[in-house]
Design a protein that fits this description.
The complex is a heterodimer of chains A (about 425) and B (about 120). Chain A is α/β, with parallel strands linked by helices. Helices cover about 20% and strands about 35% of the residues of chain A. In chain A, the strands form 7 sheets. In chain A, strands 1, 2, 5, 6, 7, 8 and 19 form a 7-stranded mixed sheet that branches. In chain A, strand 14 and strand 15 form a beta hairpin. In chain A, helix 1 runs parallel beside helix 2, helix 1 crosses helix 7 and helix 3 packs parallel to helix 4. The radius of gyration of chain B is 18 Å and the shape is elongated. Chain B folds into 2 domains: about 45 residues, no CATH class; about 60 residues, CPE0013-like fold (Roll). With about 120 residues, chain B is an alpha+beta fold. Chain B is built from 2 helices and 10 strands; from the N terminus they run βββαββββαβββ. The longest helix of chain B has 12 residues. In chain B, the strands form 3 sheets. A 5-stranded mixed sheet of chain B has the order 8-5-6-10-9. A 3-stranded antiparallel sheet of chain B has the order 1-2-3, with helices on one face. A two-stranded antiparallel ribbon of chain B has the order 4-7. The chains are: A alpha/beta (about 425), B alpha+beta (about 120). The interface between A and B is medium-sized, with 33 and 29 residues.
Chain lengths: ~425, ~120
């Protein structure tokens, strides 16, 4: 069986950044496995700008951002296989892939980095009543059809869900001459970034209806219209609020789900909130030598943070390859998300071996104004920072310093929560 | 005196800013960095946008090449710019950064490719 020091599953933003970082950390034998015919992943179809403000201090489009990382991988001559789909990973880090040239191949990896990204929540997950005509797309599918394959997706459009891809597609379709009639969001707040609401909806006078959902879909061959209704606090439609919209296209932008079939196959423990693996501060899953980063770990808003996170996974995988297993019975401290904080990544901190600082990313459960983000080591308040606005659509972060653990040798848990006054 | 509430789009934070316009006197509050003040002033005086779209490619490995305005253009010119972008065809190969329209819709701004597309 062929051996590679680090095998990276996925050649999107996470996989590319992890590869570049692992090489920088001195690992020569790296292999990226990508199922598409090109590197770059979802960035290839995200032709809008706004990428890279943190990483490159300039505003790039998705393909431009991808090209910077592809250039790093090419310059470093890091090997990759395209049109290659991984079908299995096991706990012993044997990776089985399939492609046209080699057929079915199993290789042994010193370390594996999971960087498979996420996929869109489909109509089937929504239980929306009505017919199943043509003209209903997930927003990302419509984005690919329009931006890469060059199809006109539709002319009269309704968008369900206010996720970022839905907002971006509202503008994109408007620019291409379609009439986007309304964006409906089930929740009382938008799931997308504020800047996208300003630039994609407000600029073009597209109404955003919060606390609304689709209660009927019409049309037998092609979609002909939908019925929208307002929902109450329990998200049940309110009788008498129905509105009919004629349309030939419905885009769904109703959430992203990390794509973890392979991770589950490898037997790593999964987090019920993120739908990604549980990881420690090295981004190592609880299966030794298997790391995770990017949208397969938890869904991000900004690719810049994906790149940062993936670079960390790449560095840590490199350290693992060079130095081997972490010591047994290390001091592992769980991070608890409470009172308005839905989850944290990482979920576990190795206090003894952690770097000088560890960034903990999380999302809140609801829109909060003038709340504090508090950190507790056991029952002791360590820091409390006021935030004007917190929203589920915008990922938050706190930084834990290694020095802050001096004086807490017996710490059992770290709690991150929101607090009112 | 006129007051406008805007959301700064200078970065992903999206700070809510308030602009009060009193003749030539423009006052910005709510911003958390200098870019917020710059954005708000520009947004009330002469709003501009980067436009991103795609252009059909002849003989390319993919059907369209993604493009953008090289710098921002007046917001009022967005649809004029789109009209020209839609009318143009590019021939593969197209290189990243290649100029596909020189002066788009009289804005003086170039339309450039944001990815490369190889010939089929």
């Amino acid at each position: 069986m062929t051996h590679h020091d680090i095998v990276i599953i996925g050649g999107g933003p996470a996989g590319l950044s992890a590869a570049a970082a692992a090489r920088k950390a001195g690992i020569q034998d790296i292999l990226i496995l990508e199922r598409d015919g090109v590197l770059g992943g979802i960035l290839n179809q995200c032709i809008h700008n706004g990428f890279g403000l943190h990483t490159f201090k300039e505003e790039l489009t998705g393909p431009e951002y991808a090209s910077r990382y592809i250039a790093m991988v090419e310059e470093e001559k890091i090997p990759y296989k395209l049109n290659t789909i991984v079908v299995d990973i096991n706990r012993g880090r044997e990776v089985t892939y399939i492609n046209k040239e080699e057929g079915l191949v199993t290789i042994q990896a010193g370390a594996v980095i999971l960087a498979m990204g996420c996929r869109e929540r489909p109509r089937g997950a929504l239980n929306t009543p009505g017919y199943r005509p043509a003209g209903i797309y997930s927003a990302g599918t419509a984005q690919r059809l329009m931006n890469i394959e060059g199809y006109c997706v539709g002319k009269e459009v309704v968008i369900l869900g206010s996720g970022d891809i839905g907002l971006i597609m509202a503008r994109r379709m408007t620019l291409e001459g379609a009439k986007v009639k309304v964006v409906a969001e089930l929740m009382p707040y938008s799931g997308g970034l504020k800047r996208n609401i300003v630039q994609c909806l407000d600029d073009y006078g597209i109404p955003l209806k919060l606390s609304h959902t689709i209660i009927n879909i019409e049309g037998k061959e092609r979609l002909t219209g939908i019925t929208l209704a307002e929902v109450d606090a329990n998200r049940n439609p309110i009788p008498g609020t129905e509105e009919h919209y004629s349309c030939d296209t419905l885009l769904l932008s109703v959430g992203l789900i990390p794509e973890n079939e392979l991770s589950k196959g490898a037997g790593v423990s999964m987090n019920r909130v993120t739908s990604g693996p549980n990881v420690d501060d090295c981004l190592e899953t609880e299966a030794e030598g298997i790391y995770a980063c990017g949208n397969v770990l938890h869904v991000h808003d900004l690719v810049d943070f994906v790149s940062q996170e993936a670079a960390l996974a790449g560095e840590n995988a490199a350290t693992y390859v060079k130095e081997g297993k972490k010591k047994e019975n290390a001091h592992k401290v769980p991070l608890l998300a409470e009172n308005g904080v839905r989850y944290t990544v990482p979920q576990v901190l190795n206090v003894d071996t952690m770097k000088d600082s560890v960034t903990v990313r999380f999302r809140v459960a609801d829109v909060y104004k003038d709340r504090y983000i508090a950190i507790y080591y056991d029952d002791k308040l360590i820091s409390r920072k006021k935030k004007k606005v917190l929203a589920p659509g915008e990922m938050e972060q706190v930084v834990l310093k290694k020095s802050s653990f001096e004086g807490y040798p017996e710490i059992k848990q770290i709690k991150i929560c929101t607090e009112v006054e | 005196m006129e007051t406008r509430n805007l959301i700064c789009i200078g970065c992903p934070l999206g700070c809510p800013v308030t602009v009060t316009i009193d003749g030539d006197d423009i006052n910005v509050t709510g911003n958390t960095c200098p870019r917020g003040a710059d954005y708000a002033k520009k947004e009330v005086l002469s709003p501009t946008r980067i436009v991103t779209s795609s252009i059909r490619v002849n003989n390319g490995v993919i059907a369209r090449v993604s493009v953008k305005t090289k710098s921002d253009i007046p917001k009022s010119k967005i649809f004029d710019v789109m009209k020209e972008i839609q009318a143009v065809r590019a021939d593969a190969p197209v290189a990243l950064g290649q100029v596909l329209i020189k002066d788009c819709a009289g804005t003086g701004v170039e339309i450039i490719a944001t990815k490369s597309v190889n010939r089929l």
